[in-house]
Amino acid sequence: MGKRSLQDKVLILLSWGLVLMCSAAEQDYFPHSNTSTWDEARTHCQVCFKELVTVTPQNIQNIQNLSQNLTSDYWVGLRKYFYCTGNRSISWSRWANGDPLIFQNWYPGSPRFKSFPNSYCCSCSCSCTNPAMTTPGKTSFTTFTSFTTSGVRNTTDMSSFTDITNFTTSGVRNTTDMSSFTDMSSFTDITNQTVTDFNRLSDATTQNTPPATTPRMPVEAECVQSPTLSPLVSETDVNYIEDSCVAMLSFGAWVEKKCSELLPYVCYDDRFLGQVNVTNKTTESAFLTWQPGPGNISHYRIEVKVDNNLTQFTTYNLTHDLVNLTAGTGYSVQVFPVKCGRELNPQKVTFYTEPNKVENLLVINVTKTSVSLMWDKPVGNLDFYLIKVQDGQQIRSDTQSKEVNSLIPGNLYTFTVHSVVNDTLSEGYNTSKYTKPGKVLELKACENNLNSVLLRWKQPDGGFTGFVGKATYGNKCTVASASSK
Predict the structure, then answer these.
(1) Whole-model pTM above 0.90?
(2) Structural domains of the chain in order of their starting residue, each with its CATH number
(3) Residue-wise burial string across 124-163, b where 16 or more C-beta atoms lie within 10 A, e elsewhere
(4) Confidence band for 147, pLDDT divided at 50, 70 and 90
(5) Above 60 in pLDDT, residue 126?
(6) pLDDT grade, residue 462 (50/70/90)?
């Protein structure tokens, strides 16, 4: 896989940053004054919070505000190396929670590198005009052949020799140090036990007697002083830490420290935002359910508040059945997940129990167009009463009685009365009643005879089921009925 260019890396970091900006949860920060190693601090943060604090462009302002209250160096969730699948990752690449490092705030001089190069400097050295003679008075050797008058004895590598051996016809005699020789004019030939020219020795390897040679003077190298540049040599930084961890200074900048140092630290946790649901509400009970808190939740503490009274419960479950409640009453509930003795943000809900239904509903008056009702207030609380009429009317009442108007004469109506609290209706209490029918119109008597009289009239508005006629003579009353046909 080819190496990425700097531009590619910047684009990748920007992409990671955009993902973080879109998905970052709201966070809370928790400084700890007790000192721990970096690993111990991280373990505690993972168990009781989420992680050691992570610094991003989104939370830098919160971190800066937090650092103003810090009085020393604090561990944060950044380490030079993290290990995955057995291979060391790139240094300073990810936070402890796995987020990529897209923001840095190093103190000047940090982070430190393992070594740094010396700068070039000028020096004077000897530059030789004769490349074959690098040192005055010395000859560079490749091989040396030892021999006698009878022929070749052996060959010795002379590439590292600094002295020369004197020979006789019988072999090697002694060794004389040549390191201080500058003049070889006193040497004659090999028969005088002195070697004068080693460039001709190779010819002697094929003869029985050493050849006679003419003395040759060594050529001295001519040296010229000239400025040169010294090589680039790296020096190890004595303050370098191979696997360092990051501490945040009290003013927010970062420095490297040994991970084994004991420092206070800052943990963070995503702000928990859950919700409580209420089901099966009755006049005196309700069933609660809520979402599980993050991490190692030991238990849940429930607060139930009504007016100025507070009741508390503890549970290890995600449900709770509230009982012995008051009808028509508003309750405020908070459920706190408890993690390492610390209460997370509570899940909240408010609700009302159902009000009790009214009692003793009575019809106290009826007219052709109205019916008057009266009832007793139920036990518990309520906001008002709602009267539902069969014809679709809904009438509000703030008292325990109400006249229902705009009815049609002679019709049967069913009236249902509810107690209401916070738009929650109680069970209804109902009664039925006819309104009075209307009066007949244009009543006339006709076809009179000795024993009867025929009455005619116009039917009234509204409903009716029949007619009743009364004839009175003196103290006598005669009643006659007729159908509606």
Answers:
(1) no
(2) 6-115+240-270 (3.10.100.10), 128-226 (no CATH), 276-352 (2.60.40.10), 359-434 (2.60.40.10), 441-483 (no CATH)
(3) eeeeeeeeebeebebbebeebbebeeeeeeeeeebeebee
(4) very low
(5) no
(6) confident
